[in-house]
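Lab meeting, item 3. Inverse folding demo.
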């Protein structure tokens, strides 16, 4: 009985060290120069009531402009050993980190000891599964959520 309880406590402590799964990073704009502003749909899409929702709020046509209000990424944390020290984040080589989502220019959002930090992880061989959702308003005033990656033009403020 003591052994079973000890294993359960150890498993709970190990699970508690990681972030929630999925990890939701509200307000994230997941690439260099990413901007929430006027976006143009590159294909027909359906706006839903919330990320992964099934209630249709509106339908977008290809070429239709919307105002992107905010967004969020939803990631499955990827556990790994830190490949080297990240002094600015207090991470040492070998520490257990959880990679969450890309932020641009080699920078990734990472969970470490209960906090979210940004680190440069060039050459990452395996990336966590991540979805980018955006809350948008149509020209008709309808607000809804839509998958944002590769679905709109004018997201990049750098060009």
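The presenter then showed the designed sequence:
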């Amino acid at each position: 009985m003591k052994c079973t309880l000890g294993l359960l406590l150890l498993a709970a402590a190990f699970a508690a060290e990681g972030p929630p799964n999925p990890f939701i990073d509200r307000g994230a704009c997941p690439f260099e120069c990413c901007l929430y502003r006027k976006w143009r749909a590159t294909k027909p899409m359906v706006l839903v009531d919330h990320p992964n929702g099934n209630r249709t709020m509106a339908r977008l046509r290809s070429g239709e402009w919307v105002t992107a209000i905010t967004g969020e990424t939803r990631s499955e944390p990827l556990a790994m050993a830190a490949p080297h020290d990240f002094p600015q984040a207090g991470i040492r080589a070998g520490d257990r980190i959880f990679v969450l989502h890309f932020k641009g220019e080699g920078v990734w959002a990472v969970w470490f000891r209960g906090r979210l930090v940004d680190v440069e992880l060039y050459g990452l061989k395996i990336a966590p599964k991540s979805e980018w959702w955006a809350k948008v308003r149509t020209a008709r005033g309808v607000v809804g959520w839509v998958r944002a990656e590769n679905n709109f033009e004018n997201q990049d403020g750098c060009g």
